[in-house]
Amino acid sequence: MTQDMPYSLPPVRGTLTANRALADLTWLHVGGPADWLFQPADAQDLAGFLAALPAGIPVFPIGVGSNLIVRDGGLRAVVIRLGRGFNAIEVAGDTIRAGAAALDAHVARKAADAGRDLTFLRTIPGSIGGAVRMNAGCYGSYAADHLLDVTVVTRAGEVKTLTAADLHFAYRHSDLPEGWVITSATFRADPCKPQDLHNKMTDQLAKRDASQPTKARSAGSTFRNPAGFSSTGQADDVHDLKAWKVIDDAGMRGATRRGAQMSGMHPNFLINTGGATAADLEELGEEVRKRVFETQGITLEWEIRRVGEPAAE
């Protein structure tokens, strides 16, 4: 119990921490505290906790925080972060089953070792749960192209299996209800020679490092490409605009707001150069959106998720 949340939470075998700062759990290193952070021991622990948790308490799952701004006032919720009990990776024939906490890069490498092509995951800086939730993709492939099914725990604590069709994928989107937690996912991948796959991933990493500020505190692409897309996220070439290009054309490459900056290397990367607050980052992003609309009539949509409350005045 805490002063702000005057009731007890269900007993757990994992770890429950009150008023847990979230800045060190996000790649941008900003954000206030969550009311509670729950790190379940395993899927049974998670299901039991959610089943017993009062329905009115919000639940917010996070992965490695690579696509997230937590506002400076924090989150009035129980934040759920999966750990070691949810990071197993198993390859059987043409299927790869991965725990939601498994890093995308690790899944890509282990699949490659077995001669299965999930190389598109190699340069995505996140975990499998987030990759499914946001239909992550690059190099023309998306999670929706390979996903067979996911196991989830609902907000009511029920364990369910959902097919890819159940998630109604769109560009950077899936229809996963709020408060539901992905615990594992199964993918199908085409065969290829393991060394060819590892060589391909080495080339992808080199290209990424040459064009993106991979050593900076960022959350990946800040805005979605302003284009038309198919249900699985494939770009419509007729209207294929790039967010970095319209930001550059608006004169916002390298723009700053205190410790926040639009990268000079890749203007669709919002970075914390040191000392930025969540408000600094979000306000700079909104300034970019305003300038792009004023100069080109294009409305950019955030790709980074922004959650929580602003700091108190």
Low-confidence stretches: 228-238
CATH top-level class of the largest domain? Alpha Beta
- Succession of helices and strands: EEHEEEEEHEHEEHEEEEHEHEEEHE
Q: Enumerate the strands of the largest sheet in spatial order, edge to edge or round the barrel.
A: 6-7-13-11-12
Indicate how many domains the architecture comprises. 3
The description of the largest β-sheet is: 5 strands, antiparallel
> How would you describe the shape?
globular
The residue-averaged pLDDT reads 92
Q: What would CATH call the architecture of the largest domain?
A: 2-Layer Sandwich
Helix content range: 10-25%
Report how far the terminal alpha carbons are from each other.
26 Å
Number of strands: 19
**SS element count, helices:** 7
Radius of gyration: 20 Å
Structural class: alpha+beta
Question: Which percent range describes the beta-strand content?
Answer: 25-35%
As for the CATH topology of the largest domain, it is Uridine Diphospho-n-acetylenolpyruvylglucosamine Reductase, domain 3
